[in-house]
Amino acid sequence: MSDKHKWQLAALVLGIGLLLWALGPVLTPFVIAALLAYLGDPMVDRLERLRLSRTGAVVIVFLLMTLALVGVVLLLIPLLERQVSTFIDQFPRYREWFTGTVLPWITERTGVEIEGFDLEYLYGMLRDHWKQAGGFAATVLGGISRSGMVIIGWLVNLALIPVVAFYLLRDWDVMVEKIRLLIPRRIEPVISRLSREADSVLGGFLRGQLSVMVALGAIYSIGLWMVGIDLALLIGMVAGLVSFIPYLGAIVGVGAGLIAAMVQHGDLTHVLLVGLVFAVGQTLESVVLTPFLVGDRIGMHPVAVIFAVMAGGQLFGFVGVLVALPVAAVVMVILRYLYQEYTASRLYAGEHPPPDGPSPPAGEPPPIRRKANPRGRRRRGRRAETDPGTDPGGSGA
């Protein structure tokens, strides 16, 4: 590729990036629909292998995904909102436990007197902000009801998501094949291989690690609810969502669960039961969830996930958050490919010495190797043919 073509390609990529940035608000429903289609395509392919038509399989998967999303919106979000309100109402009990138990224990063990540590300001800030927000649903409805055009745009985007997702899911394999046929034949094998690797990386997180996070959140929440913890859903969901960072989910969940058990019940039995819940969850995650849902697929590093989401949100807003993980997966695969190409290049390995001896010292020209003269071989051949003592036929008869 010439320098001119490289600059043209860079300008094209930059232009596409600027266009996506300018069309960010318009692209939001299409990006959400594309992500839903990407997540649902493997299930549709499995149903097709059971001799269902593509349209029938899409209808089944689409209904299941719709029920799951409606359940999250109508059930999970109100429950979490209620849990946050419960935590704010019970915050004085946590404050009294901290100032009456934890601080004296620290002073007794270390001899350090902690003064000026008042949780009253934190409690007042939480209470005031939550009252001002009025809950998640009230905040959303208040935000979209300020203007009639905002309401119309919000409803149009909400209606576009299932329609676009349905058609993308139905024609997903056809679109992927058409895109593959548009790739120049010279680079098509490399692009196809990198695309499969990017799909493996992204699928390892979205279809694998994300499923593990949701499953762990459900296990922790149900277990803490059975133990009798009032904030079971809030603690379980937070512990499950941060579990993509190794051990962080268990540490956060155990810490919050133990504090809730000591404040709410104050006995050793509930403390041990909370520890048992997280021990069972970690065992199921190691033995069942990760081998079954993730397997040996190479996912994304937790630091890469955090940076990608934050960078995408900073650069492109909500659309950037949505496309951050797919873009990060592609970038990781490209960097891995460039690393392999670099380590296999002569720039990295250096010049190999000639096979018949070491390289000449620096500053000296390499020795001149004289090639054999084919004309000399022909002359010797002619002299052999005209020699009277030589039999041209080679038989002497």
TrEMBL record:
Positions with biased composition (Basic residues): 368-382
InterPro entries in the record: AI-2E-like
Sequence segments annotated as region (Disordered): 350-397
UniProt topology in membrane: Multi-pass membrane protein
Gene Ontology BP annotations: transmembrane transport
Subcellular location: Membrane
Segments traversing the membrane: 12-36, 57-80, 149-169, 212-238, 244-263, 270-294, 306-339
Pfam families given in the database record: AI-2E_transport
GO CC annotation terms, alphabetical: membrane
Composition bias type Pro residues, residue spans: 355-366
Domain of life the protein comes from: Bacteria
This protein's record includes keyword Isomerase: no
Entry keyword Flavoprotein: no
The entry's keywords: Membrane, Transmembrane, Transmembrane helix
Family: Belongs to the autoinducer-2 exporter (AI-2E) (TC 2.A.86) family.
Name the UniProt record assigns to this protein: AI-2E family transporter
Species whose genome carries this gene: Denitratimonas tolerans
